[in-house]
């Protein structure tokens, strides 16, 4: 069976090697699975298996489908320790094949009539488990073989991987003759993830279950250190995983294990499956001590009706986002770095400190369309500096260490990326590995929420001096060259013993008289090797920061903290700091109750409220009490710093503003800001992919312009205007039913200048299609004849390439002072036919026609009948003849 299949089904051939330019590879079929071994990358599409190097250089490919037999490969597992790749498929009754991991065209073993993988389009989990001397092939899938004896399904199966094992290769038989399976009374299960931990040797599987009235997420744990399959299965422990405190999310979307030394920390993406509130949650769990049993799951011969143990609760919910579809993780010392794929084609990087506090999300990749990232993402196993993501027919190798794009120490530190730090000797942002024999400055642990630079001031208790201290949120691998300078009006503020600099802090003491009078503007410069950080500081007498106007507490608090002073929340006043202390956060410290002197603004509507990630100009906001609004604040799940946009055309019930572009896709919250910096209202804007154009119709216009050009594609409602060769713009119209957009072609007399069509979206321009131009249509003349009460008009025209339609041409007949509409019936290559309807009496003739085609117009006079033309010619010839006779006779008479 396998030989026949290999001969007829697996059309094997070796490709000529070619170079892949860039970290992206497109395939001719949809990607269904991607797996990574120590030395190779394997990509499975719906009809081929591709063997690639880690740099996406394709080495081999192998056909896996044959249309009459409808084979589908549904299992793909690398077995590095054995140097093989295990594939299983659906051909006939099912099969499994062992391929050489270095040459997939070389089949080592094949076995037919064995159904290991899932049925069509069902999720599964498969991995290698066991000890170094006894490896098994674990497959978790939805059960279809319900036992007639106990009404249970086989959902997890342990298969042999070697001929030397009991029952030989691809056998699921235990030594006692029973099947090595875990059974369930649930018919509807969906496996999401599974893996084996090496030390200690434990296997984990994660799945969703569904009954008529309940959904659950479960984890199954087994002791893989045992030699026999039956003993591994008997060690089964299970627990329910619960998420989350704000609302129940009973469906697991994707998951990953986080590398750890002692505990087993696991991250899962959970969904509520609620379309009205689609926000997913990413939560962390300690799954080291999964104990007990979940009702409905047991070893083959066990009792599936009992339940014990308690469910798992999250250690922390670290991220909420509506479109999360994939997750992967790595660890750098105490930092956890999460990589999140989304269903709209984004790859997001999120850092967590040792207390699981998240930093600012970083966008690593954003697709121009809505292709989802497949749930399983893999790191390059060589250096973990790249991650592989699959998007429909495309595989990308994305760098997870984008340090080189940060050109200054400030930018490098602001990225809050534990992969990146500032190399003092090379003066560039790099990884620690790339910064040898030099101080490497990086973000301190537990400092994700702190800025690089802040300062405090306080009076010395034993002298009449003020101390200014600067704090740098940095740590270094070595002791870097470090110095500070403080100047005011180009004069050094302090030196000698009054100036102290010990990395990462420095301080300056000066006379209190300098600040008690009018305040002090200081220029502070911190030098780290040759890299300098400069800051302008405005110091004030903390006790003099007062504002007695009503509702001024918030403004006073902001001024206080910005001047390095201490804000007392109890007395609601500014005070001197009592020596160095933790940095105060304005948002937390200045959360005061302010009495508003204006009517609270309200947001009623936003139009439009869905835009591309390029933003949108002149958005209309309607509401109440908007006259006090001075800007719009936009905050997204991926934004640590909100975006702000000024307002214009403001009245009490409406205003306009520009939606700024976004690095990410998804929903953001919008509020209106008043002069006291308070935010009011809560509306939603959705950022989506940019417009894409698949074609235009028609593709040609006449030179005077005005032809209706339809643009086909997706997200075309985001287009604000169109230009042809960036010269002439025209407002666009969007058809909500057809999803296409149209505009009128502009006038163009120099054809070579009017070809490219540019779509304008926000402040960005997207070049797509080409529009051809031809001469204006030429109409030669017309004739008429009566058809009952109607007058048919036949207009002669020159043949052209315009392919005019009847709705593009308007014809008006003139008879004296009367005008008649001529209804178009047909346009031929050399003729236009229309009729003037005689609804209120017969129209017998017209003297003139006015013809409009877009912006082009022309007039035609009535053509004379052909016989009149003939007699006119004859009369002219006779007249000429008599003139000649007259001239001849006249010359004879004179002679």
Automatic annotation (TrEMBL):
Pfam families: PSI. Gene3D superfamilies: Immunoglobulins, ligand-binding face of the semaphorins, domain 2, YVTN repeat-like/Quinoprotein amine dehydrogenase. Residues 1-21 form the signal peptide. The chain crosses the membrane at residues 867-893. InterPro entries: Ig-like_fold, Ig_E-set, Plexin, Plexin_repeat, PSI, Semap_dom, Semap_dom_sf, WD40/YVTN_repeat-like_dom_sf. GO terms for molecular function: semaphorin receptor activity. GO terms for cellular component: plasma membrane; semaphorin receptor complex. The keyword Signal applies. SMART domains: PSI, Sema. It is found in: Membrane. Keywords: Disulfide bond, Glycoprotein, Membrane, Signal, Transmembrane, Transmembrane helix. Coiled coil: none annotated. Its main location: membrane. One of its GO terms (biological process) is positive regulation of axonogenesis. Residues 31-383 form the Sema domain. Residues 402-448, 541-591 form the PSI domain. This is Plexin-C1-like. It comes from Carassius auratus.
């Amino acid at each position: 069976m396998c030989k026949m299949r290999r001969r007829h089904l697996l059309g094997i051939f070796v490709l000529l090697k070619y170079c892949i330019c860039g970290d992206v590879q497109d395939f001719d079929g949809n990607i269904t699975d991607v797996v990574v071994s120590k030395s190779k990358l394997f990509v499975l599409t719906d009809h081929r298996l591709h063997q690639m190097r880690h740099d996406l250089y394709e080495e081999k490919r192998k056909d896996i489908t044959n249309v009459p037999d409808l084979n589908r490969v549904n299992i793909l597992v690398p077995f590095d320790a054995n140097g093989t790749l295990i594939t299983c498929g659906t051909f006939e009754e099912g099969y499994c094949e062992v391929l050489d991991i270095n040459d997939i065209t070389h089949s080592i073993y094949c076995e037919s009539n064995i159904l290991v993988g899932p049925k069509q389009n069902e999720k599964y989990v498969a991995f290698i488990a066991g000890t170094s001397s006894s490896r098994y092939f674990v497959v978790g899938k939805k059960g279809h073989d319900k036992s007639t004896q106990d009404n249970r399904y086989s959902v997890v199966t342990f298969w042999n991987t070697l001929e030397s094992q009991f029952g030989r290769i691809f056998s699921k038989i235990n030594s006692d003759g029973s099947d090595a399976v875990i059974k369930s009374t649930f018919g509807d299960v969906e496996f999401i993830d599974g893996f084996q931990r090496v030390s200690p040797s434990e296997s984990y599987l994660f799945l969703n279950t569904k009954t008529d009235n309940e959904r659950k997420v479960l984890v199954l744990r087994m002791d893989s250190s045992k030699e026999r399959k039956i003993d591994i299965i008997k060690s089964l422990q299970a627990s329910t995983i619960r998420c989350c405190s704000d609302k129940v999310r009973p469906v697991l979307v994707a998951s990953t294990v986080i590398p750890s030394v002692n505990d087993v920390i696991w991250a899962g993406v959970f969904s509520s499956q609620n379309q009205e509130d689609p926000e997913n949650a990413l939560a962390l769990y300690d799954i080291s001590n999964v104990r007990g049993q979940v009702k409905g799951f047991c070893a083959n011969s066990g009792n599936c009706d009992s339940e014990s143990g308690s469910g798992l609760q999250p250690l922390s919910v670290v991220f909420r986002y509506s479109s999360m579809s994939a997750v992967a993780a790595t660890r750098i010392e105490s930092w956890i770095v999460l990589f999140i794929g989304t269903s709209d084609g984004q790859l997001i990087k999120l850092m967590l400190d040792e207390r699981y506090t998240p930093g600012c999300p970083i966008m690593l990749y954003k697709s121009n369309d809505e292709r989802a990232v497949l749930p399983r993402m893999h790191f390059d196993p060589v250096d973990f500096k790249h991650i592989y993501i699959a998007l429909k027919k495309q595989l990308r190798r994305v760098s997870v260490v984008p340090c080189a794009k940060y050109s200054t120490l400030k930018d490098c530190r602001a990225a809050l990326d534990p992969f990146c730090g500032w190399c003092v000797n090379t003066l560039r942002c790099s990884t620690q590995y790339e910064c040898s024999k030099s101080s490497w400055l990086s973000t301190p642990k537990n400092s994700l929420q702190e800025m690089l630079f802040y300062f405090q001031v306080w009076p010395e208790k034993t002298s009449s001096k003020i101390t200014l201290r600067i704090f740098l949120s940095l740590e270094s691998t070595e002791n870097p060259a470090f110095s500070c300078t403080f100047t005011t009006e180009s004069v050094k503020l302090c030196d000698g013993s009054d100036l102290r600099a010990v990395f990462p802090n420095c301080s300056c003491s000066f006379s209190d008289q300098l600040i008690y009078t009018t305040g002090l503007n200081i220029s502070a410069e911190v030098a780290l090797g040759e890299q300098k950080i400069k800051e302008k500081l405005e110091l004030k007498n903390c006790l003099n920061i007062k504002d007695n106007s009503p509702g001024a507490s918030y403004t006073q608090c902001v001024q206080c903290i910005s001047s390095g002073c201490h804000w007392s929340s109890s007395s609601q006043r500014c005070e001197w700091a009592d020596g160095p202390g933790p940095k105060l956060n304005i948002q937390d410290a200045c959360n005061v109750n302010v009495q508003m002197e204006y009517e609270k603004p309200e947001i009623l509507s936003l139009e439009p409220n869905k835009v591309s990630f390029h933003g949108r100009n002149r958005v209309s906001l309607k509401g109440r009490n908007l006259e006090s609004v001075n800007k719009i604040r936009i905050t997204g799940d991926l934004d640590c710093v909100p975006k702000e946009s000024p307002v214009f055309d403001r009245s009490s019930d409406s205003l306009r503003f520009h939606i700024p572009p976004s690095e990410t896709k998804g929903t953001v919250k919008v509020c209106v800001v008043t002069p006291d910096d308070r935010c009011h209202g809560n509306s939603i804007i959705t950022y989506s992919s940019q417009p894409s154009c698949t074609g235009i119709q028609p593709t040609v216009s006449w030179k005077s312009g005005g032809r209706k050009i339809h643009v086909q594609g997706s997200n075309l409602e985001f287009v604000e205007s169109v230009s042809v060769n960036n010269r002439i713009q025209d407002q666009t119209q969007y058809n909500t039913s057809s999803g296409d957009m149209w505009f009128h072609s502009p006038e163009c007399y120099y054809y070579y200048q009017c070809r490219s069509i540019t779509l304008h979206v926000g402040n960005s321009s997207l070049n797509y299609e080409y529009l051809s131009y031809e001469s204006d249509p030429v109409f030669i003349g017309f004739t008429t004849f009566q058809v009952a009460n109607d007058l048919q008009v036949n207009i002669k025209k020159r043949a052209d390439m315009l392919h005019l339609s009847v709705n593009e041409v308007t014809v008006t007949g003139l008879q004296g002072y009367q005008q008649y509409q001529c209804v178009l019936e047909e346009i031929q290559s050399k003729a236009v036919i229309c009729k003037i309807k005689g609804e209120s009496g017969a129209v017998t003739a017209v003297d003139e026609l006015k013809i409009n085609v877009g912006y082009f117009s022309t007039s035609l006079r009535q053509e004379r009948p052909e016989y009149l033309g003939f007699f006119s010619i004859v009369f002219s010839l006779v007249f000429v003849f008599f003139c000649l006779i007259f001239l001849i006779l006249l010359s004879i008479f004179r002679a």
